[in-house]
Design goal:
This protein has 125 residues and is of the alpha+beta class. The chain is 18% helix and 50% strand. Strand 5 and strand 6 form a beta hairpin. The protein is elongated.
Length: 125
C-alpha cells in the first residue's frame, strides 16, 4: 500500500510543469500541429490568452544560377499565443502554446484555482 501511495504522489508531481504531446477534449485529442480553430472547437474558450511577438533567426538557402547554394540568416517575427485552460482546483491547468497559428507545445501546470469550474461539456484529463 505504501508503494502505491508513493507511486501515485510521484506520478502527480512529475505531471506538474511537464510537457505533453496531446490533450484530450470531449473524447478527441488535440495535439501539436493543430490550428487554434480546431482546439477551440474541441476544448472551448480558454480561461486566459496572452500574445507576444518574438524574433527568431531562420536560415534561408538559395540556389544561384551557377548551381551553387548560398545560405543567408534572416530575422523573422513570430506571433506566440499562450492559451491557459484552468479547469478548477480538482484538475491540472493546461497551457497551450501556438506559434504562427500552429499548436507547438502543451504544458501541464499545478492544480487550477478555486472558483473556476469547467464548462458543462468540459475537456477530459
Amino acid at each position: 500500500m505504501r508503494f502505491f501511495a508513493l507511486a501515485l504522489i510521484l506520478s502527480a508531481a512529475s505531471a506538474v510543469g511537464s510537457t505533453a504531446h496531446a490533450m484530450q477534449c470531449r473524447g478527441r485529442l488535440v495535439s501539436r500541429g493543430d490550428a487554434p480553430s480546431r482546439v477551440r472547437s474541441l476544448c472551448g474558450d480558454p480561461s486566459d490568452v496572452s500574445t507576444r511577438v518574438v524574433q527568431r533567426s531562420r536560415t534561408i538557402h538559395r540556389r544561384l544560377p551557377d548551381g551553387s547554394i548560398v545560405s543567408d540568416t534572416v530575422t523573422v517575427s513570430v506571433e506566440v499565443q499562450e492559451w491557459t485552460y484552468d479547469f478548477g482546483p480538482q484538475r491540472f491547468v493546461r497551457v497551450l502554446t501556438f506559434e504562427d497559428g500552429e499548436l507547438v507545445a502543451i504544458e501541464t501546470r499545478g492544480y487550477g484555482t478555486p472558483g473556476n469550474s469547467p464548462p458543462p461539456d468540459r475537456p477530459d484529463d
